[in-house]
Amino acid sequence: MRVDHRITNNLTSNAYLSYEPIDGLVLKTNIGAQLNKDKNNDYLPGALPERIISGAGGFAAVASSDYQSLLNENTVSYKLPLGAKNKLDVLGGFSFQKNTTESFSASASGFPNDVVQFNNLSFGSDPETFAIESGYSQRTISSIFTRLNYSFDGKYLFTFAGRRDGSSVFEEGNKYAFFPSVGFAWNMHEESFIGNIDAINRLKLRGSVGQVGQQGVGVYNSIAKFNNTNTYFNETLVNGVLIGTLPSKDLSWETTEQVDIGLELGLYEDRVLIEIDWYQKTTKDLLLSKPLPNTAGGTQLQNIGSIRNRGMELSLRSFNLAKGDLKWESQLTISGNRNKVLELGGDEFINLRQPTNQGGNGVRLIPGYTVPAFVGATYLGTYKTTAEIDADGTNGRSFLGSPRYEDLDGNGVINSEDFIVIGSPQPTFYGGFRNTLSYKGLSLDIFIQGTYGNDIYNGRNQTHLFGRGDQNVFPAVLDRWVQGTNETSDIGRAGTSTSLFNPNSTVGIEDGSHLRLKALTLAYNVPVTGKVMDRYFNQLQFYVTGNNLILLTNFTLGDPEVSNYGAALEQGVATGQY
């Protein structure tokens, strides 16, 4: 039988020491540690069908990894005594964090029996399958920071903060950067011209402007990386190395400048709470891997271009009913974000992904468009007359029933030069609606969320509608073009796509709008009364909950919130993952 062992040990600890030598002055030091150790043991017996077919015998693999994160933070804070109306407190500090990862793995094949399994890899009888790998990486970041808070008469609040961060992922001369921010808030309800309005019990206007830095890239970018390879020299298999990625030059922090303006309003003793926020974030010196010719090393991490995000958020919370033990509370949130690539250092576009490994790159960054943009050809259905084939100039390459695409340059060939922007993963708006009802100890919580206006790039449409390679096909293919039977279909006839360029196209773009019953919880709080209950329980609750109970969507693969890639720049692509 297969053996799959996963052994994980995690330790997280924090300790701090605080000392106040005089009133208002606090010295504090904090030490935190996170230690993770993982061990994986795998064994595939030689009797498994796939092992019998290959004749490779049993297979065993052992892998381990150790992760350590150490953090030390030291702060000094002081509250200055400035009188009843003036309040000022300052904070300064220094922090240092070090993350280290070590890994090791080994595997072998050709085990004559299953006695030792992964406990002795030397029992593998096929030396050519022996594999050993190890790795080590270290990242450190240090910061000096300060913050100043000032308030006057509880009405006017000011905050200034600044930090100088340094990261080991950048080369000498670019490791450190300074990021300041300033904030202001005005408690308008403290003013007489607002305080006299009975309906308003809270009104706050706030705003801030500042910068934050991003250093979340891989380590050792400023030095060349090599990949191991094997080759034959004088009829002997020898190890070698090839350039994997080129070193980055003058790489620096990615910087986001952000402006926020918000309004908080409380009505009728906070029975109705309204919050509105407007923001704009402009990210400069983007840390992106720029494609290079293969002869030059493939890709290189660079600071390229800028992106802008601009949007609004609305939150409405109301206490609709409060009669005795019966209560009803609602909360509605609606948000809309508009992002755009401002520039890419002079490049017309940067290709990010080729989702189906065929048909050209389908995900790009393009100045003037959203992050990212889906690109491809416009699908026109199938060729239904010879006149259409003659008009497109594809005679000899197309025939009745084969797929037809818009040939933008009119050269009779469909390729990436015919690609246009065909979709965007950016919703027009997204939001959620929560209702909580309670009666005595019984409560019901309902949460609904959804999006509207976003596209999804469904990579399976390209392969499963046109039958590319050894792929399953969708049931819709039963309605394909068939001569003399179904010549009005826009699904290509059988066998027509395997010999043609099958580009990314509008066929792959689907509406990702959806509405989801995200969570439903019914709970009962048992009254903690009596000597027995008081002795053993502070609180006792029974509940039943369900997640993702109802989903309304037109997306053919089911869940429209899946994404094949974790990166924010490459969202909105689905290729059939569960």
In short:
Helices cover 6% and strands 56% of the residues. It is mainly β. 19% of the residues are buried.
Give the helices and strands, then pairings:
Blueprint: E1 3-22, E2 25-44, H1 49-54, E3 58-81, E4 86-111, E5 131-152, E6 156-167, E7 176-187, H2 192-195, E8 200-214, E9 225-233, E10 236-245, E11 254-267, E12 272-284, E13 287-291, E14 299-303, E15 306-323, E16 326-343, E17 350-353, E18 363-365, E19 373-376, E20 379-382, H3 386-392, E21 403-405, E22 420-423, E23 429-439, E24 442-452, E25 455-458, H4 459-466, E26 509-511, E27 514-526, H5 530-536, E28 540-553, E29 573-574
Parallel strand pairs: 25-29
Antiparallel strand pairs: 1-2, 2-3, 3-4, 4-5, 5-6, 6-7, 7-8, 8-11, 9-10, 11-12, 12-15, 13-14, 15-16, 16-23, 17-18, 18-19, 19-22, 20-21, 23-24, 24-27, 25-26, 27-28
Report what the structure shows.
This protein has 5 helices and 29 strands. 19% of the residues are buried. The mean pLDDT is 89. With 578 residues, it is mainly beta. A hairpin with a 2-residue loop joins β1 (3-22) and β2 (25-44). The strands form 6 sheets. It has a 16-stranded antiparallel beta sheet, with no helix packed on it.
